[in-house]
């Protein structure tokens, strides 16, 4: 509906027929005698998405300088008066001194000597009393020049609209300025004044766009006195540095200033047109300020036909723009997939990011990115795009400046000789802004990238769900460091795959991959990844969002798209800064985020199903090894080795995406050599390794003693049937207390625990639960495994360090701390036979402590 409303006006506005204007539209009586001629550039001849203007096209445009540089735009409305925006001059509620400012008139390029331009000092800056900030409106200012401007072909005033003047929805107008050409991307030299055609958006149409959550999930309520201009699809807009400059519309051969560039949400974003201060409502205020000044500004009357205007679309005609990038008919049919063909090289896969630019790994073009000169054979390069009958030719190669030494910046942009028409295919992929936060659990896919070698039997379409930033950072990032909160670019972005088991012998080395993630049906290029070296599926990707500014700077029009999904889930915002526990020699172990984020998940907790008849607790100690209590695995007297299956990732039935399950067969049981006695600990070798993930991650091992400052738990199942894990808080007794309490009956290397009040019965003991502690740094360590039939006694891991390390090369032993526990030295200091003197360990311990105290 608004589409065909736009059309006739567009033709009216963009095809000005010289001389077609009937001056009679303004009757002589309507002309104000004191006014000078306005709004007519003497014929001679960025703003975002705009282009260089011709000198003299916008003779009222001025540049406002402070400290020697351009800060804001403004417009000449009378020889001694400039109109601009209040926010240019008010900082923290205070109006800056006029003396700090100067007005440059008649300037076109601001590079070098300002030829033909002249400068005026500012005598006064006037701002409405009710101005408090751009979002509250009244963002208007008047500057009185210390001496009148010299009018000429490049310096002329613009016409001002009267209060009754209407700029109808769809009117084509122009904004001008020396502001940024994109968000955080300044206008390049030679700083030529930019112009862009923008359409007036009626109040309803604009409010409709701003009522939908956009960038940063924000909405905005427009206020009277504000005016929108731009396009629902964005891409052409004003930006920082254009503020204060004019939005002008041509009516009957004269240019009227409809708006003052005020603010917006970002620049050129979808459904976020620029917001201007409407000039017409300030007729009275302007007249009041300039009273007595001769000649004053001109307010020519609008012709009556235009004033009645066109009916403004109502709320029902609220047309929002949908993303133009990232739509794929189905996963794998990527309309942006580009194949770059360089003579003498294998094809290199990249992604179309705009009409004219393809992003690909720089390593596809070795030897061609180190010099500043264009590659000699660029003429012979070709790019194949989906649904294009012929190969595209390449005009330019722009490698990332860090491409040759930083894997995270292994990127190059290729400009096509001619832009392609975007349609269903080819269509660009969406790129994330730096502040994009891909939600944990987002659906992602691997896509070809660079020189991709097919992985035997593996689809490149592998589906994955995104891990939370904490997991990704702590598994593959920098242990011991804090984790970037949402909104700050992460160091890595990690998919967690759904398929359970890797086929033996399949190796994912030799290939680059990119990670595409979907939000609201729209695909973003979220990450890139260089060659993995461990044959595992690619797990940590370099985030692409850090490169958004570089890509948009080079391409001036790549499709950076706002975050589309904000449903953070019931856990709410994970905004607290969190830290990763320290790293070990063998990588990450014992990682478990704060309980709020875990959903009850214990990544190393395994269900060990023995001979289909009982379930023991197992603990993952390395990617291919589980530790369990021997007595639970091997029944006394049995001579056969049982059939054993191990399940990981079942613990807690977590709703988080990382709770996928993994199962393995046990192919061997290893026991340490213990003279005479049956050893308490058994190592189970798994049929194949498990990939580290939040549902299958090894625990750290404690080499001896009780970890100082740690909090310790017995981790078991409340009910052996449904196996929901519960943790009971315990204290580990000192070796002496333990020894005395169980005098004479404990095998060496036994730990005694005391349950916290009321925690004794939290878990059942037949499955032989483990004793775990969380160190002060946050790592979880395995300290012992339950001894048969007891809920208080545990076989310590420490004494078996040598055996475990020799059997399992990758076991993660932490550095020793605390005090040793297997030396019951001074046993004769125990009070005589008091062990088991009383019914409960708590009572016995109390008695024991009392006796030891009295003994002194
Ligand atoms: C600014 O910061 C600014 N896209 C001006 C205009 C817009 C955004 C920012 C509109 O001066």
UniProtKB/TrEMBL annotation:
It is an enzyme of class 3 (hydrolase). Residues 1-22 form the signal peptide. SUPFAM superfamilies: Trypsin-like serine proteases (SSF50494). GO terms for molecular function: serine-type endopeptidase activity. GO terms for biological process: proteolysis. Its EC number is 3.4.21.-. Residues 47-291, 326-556, 588-809 form the Peptidase S1 domain. Its main location: secreted. The active site is at 87 (charge relay system), 139 (charge relay system), 243 (charge relay system). Serine protease. Hydrolyzes the peptides N-t-Boc-Gln-Ala-Arg-AMC and N-t-Boc-Gln-Gly-Arg-AMC and, to a lesser extent, N-t-Boc-Ala-Phe-Lys-AMC and N-t-Boc-Val-Leu-Lys-AMC. Has a preference for substrates with an Arg instead of a Lys residue in position P1. Serine protease. Has a preference for substrates with an Arg instead of a Lys residue in position P1. This is Polyserase-2. It comes from Phocoena sinus.
């Amino acid at each position: 509906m608004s589409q065909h409303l736009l059309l006739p006006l567009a033709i009216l506005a963009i095809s000005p027929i010289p001389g077609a204007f009937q001056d009679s539209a303004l009757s002589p009586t309507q002309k104000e005698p004191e006014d000078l001629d306005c709004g007519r550039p003497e014929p001679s001849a960025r703003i975002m998405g705009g282009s260089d203007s011709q000198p003299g096209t916008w003779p009222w445009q001025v540049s406002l300088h402070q400290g020697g540089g351009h800060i804001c735009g403004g417009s000449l409305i009378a020889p001694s008066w400039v109109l601009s925006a209040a926010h240019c001059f008010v900082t923290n509620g205070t109006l800056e001194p006029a003396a700090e400012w100067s007005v440059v008139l008649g300037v076109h390029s601001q590079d070098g000597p300002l030829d033909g331009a002249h400068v005026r000092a500012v005598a006064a800056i006037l701002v409405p009393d009710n101005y408090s900030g751009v979002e509250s409106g009244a963002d208007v200012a008047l500057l009185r020049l210390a001496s009148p401007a010299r009018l000429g072909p490049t310096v002329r005033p613009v016409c001002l609209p009267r209060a009754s003047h209407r700029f109808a929805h769809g009117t084509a107008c122009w904004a001008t300025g020396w502001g940024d050409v994109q968000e955080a991307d300044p206008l390049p030299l030679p700083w030529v004044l930019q112009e862009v055609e923008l359409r007036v958006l009626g109040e309803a149409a604009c409010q409709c766009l701003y009522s939908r959550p956009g960038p940063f999930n924000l909405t905005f309520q427009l206020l009277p006195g504000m005016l929108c201009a731009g396009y629902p699809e964005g891409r052409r807009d004003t930006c920082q540095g254009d503020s204060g400059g004019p939005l002008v519309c041509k009516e009957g051969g004269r240019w009227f200033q409809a708006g003052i560039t005020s603010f917006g949400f970002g620049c050129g974003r979808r459904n976020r047109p620029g917001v201007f201060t409407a000039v017409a409502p300030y007729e009275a205020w302007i007249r009041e300020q300039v009273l007595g000044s001769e000649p004053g500004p001109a307010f020519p009357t609008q012709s009556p036909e235009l004033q009645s205007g066109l009916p403004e679309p109502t709320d029902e005609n609220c047309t929002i723009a949908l993303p133009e990038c990232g739509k794929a008919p189905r996963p794998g049919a990527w309309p942006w997939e580009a194949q770059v063909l360089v003579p003498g090289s294998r094809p290199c896969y990249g992604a179309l990011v705009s009409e004219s630019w393809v992003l690909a790994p720089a390593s596809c073009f070795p030897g061609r990115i180190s010099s500043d000169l264009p590659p000699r054979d660029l003429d012979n390069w070709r790019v194949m795009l989906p649904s294009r009958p012929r190969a595209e030719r390449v005009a330019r190669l722009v490698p990332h400046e860090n491409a040759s030494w930083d894997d995270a910046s292994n990127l190059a942009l290729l400009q096509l000789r001619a832009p392609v028409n975007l349609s269903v295919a080819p269509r660009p992929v969406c790129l994330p802004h730096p502040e994009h936060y891909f939600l944990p659990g987002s659906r992602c896919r691997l896509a070809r990238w660079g020189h991709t070698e097919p992985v035997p039997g593996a689809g490149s379409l592998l589906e994955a769900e995104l891990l939370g930033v904490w997991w990704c950072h702590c598994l593959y990032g920098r242990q011991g460091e804090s984790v970037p909160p949402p909104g700050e670019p992460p160091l890595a972005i990690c998919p967690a795959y759904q398929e359970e088991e890797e086929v033996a012998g399949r190796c994912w080395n030799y290939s680059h991959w990119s990670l595409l993630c979907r939000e609201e049906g729209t695909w973003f290029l979220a990450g890139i990844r260089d060659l993995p070296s461990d044959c595992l599926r690619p797990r940590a990707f370099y985030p692409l969002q850090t490169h958004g500014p570089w890509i948009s700077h080079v391409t001036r029009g790549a499709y950076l798209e706002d975050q589309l999904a904000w449903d953070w889930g019931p856990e709410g915002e994970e905004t607290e800064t969190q830290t990763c526990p320290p790293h070990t020699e063998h990588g990450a172990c014992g990682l478990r985020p704060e309980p709020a984020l875990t959903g009850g998940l214990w990544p190393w907790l395994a269900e060990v199903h023995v001979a289909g008849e009982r379930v023991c607790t197992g603990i993952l100690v390395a990617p291919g090894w589980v530790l369990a209590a021997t007595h639970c695995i091997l029944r006394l007297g049995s001579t056969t080795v049982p059939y054993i299956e191990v399940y990981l990732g079942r613990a807690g039935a977590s709703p988080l995406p990382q709770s996928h399950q993994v199962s393995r067969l046990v192919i061997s049981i290893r026991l340490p050599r213990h003279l005479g006695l049956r050893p308490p600990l058994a190592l189970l070798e798994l049929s194949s390794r498990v990939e580290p993930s939040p549902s299958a991650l090894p625990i750290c091992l404690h080499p001896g003693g009780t970890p100082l400052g740690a909090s310790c738990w017995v981790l078991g199942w409340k009910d052996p049937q449904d196996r929901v894990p519960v943790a009971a808080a315990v204290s580990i007794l000192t070796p002496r207390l333990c020894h005395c309490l169980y005098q004479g009956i404990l095998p060496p290397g036994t730990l005694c625990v005391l349950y916290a009040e009321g925690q004794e019965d939290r878990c059942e003991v037949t499955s032989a639960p483990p004793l775990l502690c969380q160190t002060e740094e946050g790592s979880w360590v395995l300290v012992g495994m339950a001894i048969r039939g007891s809920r208080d006694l545990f076989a310590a891991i420490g004494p078996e360090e040598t055996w475990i390390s020799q059997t399992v090369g990758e076991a993660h032993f932490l550095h020793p701390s605390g005090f040793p526990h297997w030396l019951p030295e001074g046993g004769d200091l125990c009070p005589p036979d008091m062990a088991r003197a009383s019914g409960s360990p708590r009572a016995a311990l109390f008695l024991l402590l009392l006796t030891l105290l009295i003994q002194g």
